[in-house]
Amino acid sequence: MANDAPSLFERLKQRRVFRVGGVYLVTAWVLLQVGSVVFGPLGLPPWSELALIVLLALGFPMALVLAWTYDITPDGIAKTSDAPPTTDMSASIAVLPFVAMGEQAGLKTLGEGLAEEITNQIVDRRECQVASRTSAFAQAQSGTDVNAIGRALGVWYVLEGSVRPIGERIRLTTQLVRVHDGFHLWSATYDLPSQGEHRELDRVSITVSALTSHYIGSDLRVQAARQLTRNAEAFRHFEAAVRLRVRLNTGGLTEPTGAVGKQIVGELDRAIALDPNFVAPYRLRANLYANRLGGSVRWQDAAREARRSVERALELQPEDPDGLGELALLQWSIELDPTAAEQTIERIGRIDPKRSMEQTLGSIASTRGRVREATQHFRQAAERRSADAVNHIELGWLLLEQDDLAAAKRAFDAALFVTPKGSMAVMATWGLIDVALRQDDSMGAETLFEQLWSEYRFAFPERFGYLLARMGRSNEARALLEELIREPTPNSEWIFWTYYGLMEYDQALVWLLQAIDDHRTRVIMRVRRPNAFPGLQNLPGYATALARLDAVQRSP
Question: Around Cβ 347, how many Cβ atoms within 10 Å?
């Protein structure tokens, strides 16, 4: 377990108190030497030297206090942040029993049982060190506050909450707290059936454990970035951007992805304006544009902004593997230059041989139609970075195309396990529906679809055209299609998928060509894979799509 707080010695180092003290003593010695030489010739009274010594002695503790309290930043003097050194932070957590708020029979048992199940789920994810159930439950009985409990258990984060009756149901409230300052990183409420249906309880425990892991990982990355700027206000804007993004990625926001993406970029731009040498906002900005703000930005604009951001990040830190990773992503996903991306990945390997770039390598192999190689890369990526749902989803689609339905289902289930909410959950469930339909399990497919439709039809409507068509709801698919085409900048990717689901292959091919021209990466990754689009790929006109991709790519 991590120490409960940074040591005093380490905090003094962080705030440069030792450095200020050393500089002050050297300066004081020089002033005393000068005084002993010049005070006499200047005719100053004999007590002047003593007065100088007293003043310098009194100034020493004041200098140390100011060094502890304030930083000199490129934008002036700013109060020092209380953020702890990242070297002392760890992904360590205690899950406390959820407090029963009421006298209803079984409420206390339910709260303890949920806490135990969530503890087990977090342990299974292997992303955090977890305090034992016995220790956490014993500390919860101490009557002290959450911060004191966390320090006693030696963890950096505590998950707490309550269960209380709401009509015929039970409401679970959860809160993730950072121990050293009591900051609430995340909170949520869930309504459970009063009879405790096991399937619903399992779903909630999986969701809570996944979101807890995501928010802890995000907070650790944020605190690491705190060391890259001495401007507290710039850091606050960067922190706000990261928190917005993790909420978006985990389904915590229902606004359109593009609109939230612009909010995030706005926070990053404010951070950069306050500290132009703060590298972290440039890296995140490059990543956002390499992903086209969720597909809402024209590829030309995305390429320009991503390139500008990543070049500035690498200007500040030329050998930074994170910055180079964003460059490789840009080269492959927007600039469609897989050869350049591979060269960047080789450079990363020389700097940091342990860094995994399997996801990008899998995407490059997939774009080239090398199914076996892509499958191997994504399988390794899923093993090494198991918390990234993208690895599991892409592996699932590759396995589905190879007709390995059981393995594909396991991959999509794994994606839902690590990210049970948000846009990635939609894509993973999409894969599970396809698996069910191929297994002639229409009832299972319908159950999955209805759950997805009820939860995300307004958050991600564009992603449902293909599924509506596959589920036999053609009229609704066509109505959605009309809305997508009427948009000022139609998203060719989702229009293609809807036509493909309706098996209107001539129109699907038209929009596939447009998706290639628009650099829609998720589609481009599949164009050369032999079984990605059954039915469509058998048509003579499909050769046009292959030729178009050859023409659009910068390198083979």
Answer: 15
Could you tell me the residue ranges of all domains in the chain? 8-72, 86-225, 255-346, 356-439, 460-556
Backbone angles phi, psi at 404, to 5 degrees: -95, 80
Q: Which residues contact 93 (CB under 8 A, 6 or more apart)?
A: 122, 128, 129, 130, 131, 155, 156, 157, 158, 159, 212, 216
pLDDT band at residue 486 under the 50/70/90 scheme: very high
| Residues 6 or more apart whose Cβ sits within 8 Å of residue 208 | 118, 121, 159, 174, 188, 190
Pinpoint the alpha helices (H) of 156-254. 198-225, 232-249
CATH class of 86-225: alpha beta
- pLDDT tens for 397-440 read 999 999 999 999 999 999 998 888 888 899 999 999 999 999 99
4: enclosing H helix or E strand: none
What number of residues does the chain have? 556
Judging by beta carbons within 10 Å of its beta carbon (0-12, 13-18, 19+), is residue 1 exposed, middle or buried? Answer: middle
Side chain identity, residue 386: S
Distance CA 120, CA 128 (A): 11
| φ and ψ at residue 383, rounded to 5 degrees | -75, -40
- From CA 403, how far away is CA 389, in angstroms rounded? 21
Q: Looking at this protein, which amino acid is placed at residue 187?
A: S
Nearest alpha carbon to residue 338 among 112, 86, 519, 122: 519
CATH number, domain 356-439:
1.25.40.10
Query: Do 255-346 and 86-225 fall under one CATH topology?
Result: no
- Report d(CA 213, CA 130) in Å as an integer: 11
For the chain, report the end-to-end CA distance as a whole number of angstroms: 49
Q: Which CATH number applies to 255-346?
A: 1.25.40
For 110-161, write each residue's pLDDT tens digit. Answer: 899 999 999 998 888 777 889 998 999 998 888 778 888 888 999 999 999 9
164: helix, strand or coil: strand
Task: Give the mean pLDDT of the chain.
Answer: 87
Tell me the C-alpha distance between 323 and 326, whole Å: 5
